[in-house]
Amino acid sequence: MKTRGLLIALLVSAALNLFLVGMGVGALSYARVMQPAPAFAGAQPRMPLQAMVGSLKPERRAAFRANVRESLDATFDNIREARRLRSEAYDLMAAEPFDQALVVDRLDRARALEMASRRHVEAGMIAYSASLPPAERASLAAAMRAVMEKMRSSGVLQLWGAARVAAPVSPAVRPPRPSPAGSAG
Question: DSSP per residue over 25-59, as a string?
Fold first, then answer.
């Protein structure tokens, strides 16, 4: 695969991960307090799950919520363990003597659990969408895309970029970046 293809795949993967993280966080907090979608016209859903539920016909919403709740319940222990591992990694990072390999291991394990959880929730949503008529499936896909776009434009990436500009990492501290194959300079 060429460097350009890898870059495109990386950007698509990053966008999908941001979408799924937001969806998972929103769904986790929302799943415990399942509220109906806003009843009045023009209401803006506050949570990603609400936006997706609102795209469905009223008679299909409860089944979608149940599907997402079931998927989230099945991954709850993994998510809790991932949080514990991240917290442990940050504690280890502050400890002396510093064991970089151990910190990286904890973060890698946390990430693997999070990815497995995202994969499970996404698979449940896709399985549910297979039961929908094409027009409703397209509406759900459009709502999912809108959530992803809203997250992308919400300022999270802009804040991260502004922090990098405001406090650039010294080249002495920054890990070296591999140069793309075949690029000059």
Answer: HHHHHHHTT-PPPP-STTPPPSSHHHHHHHTS-HH
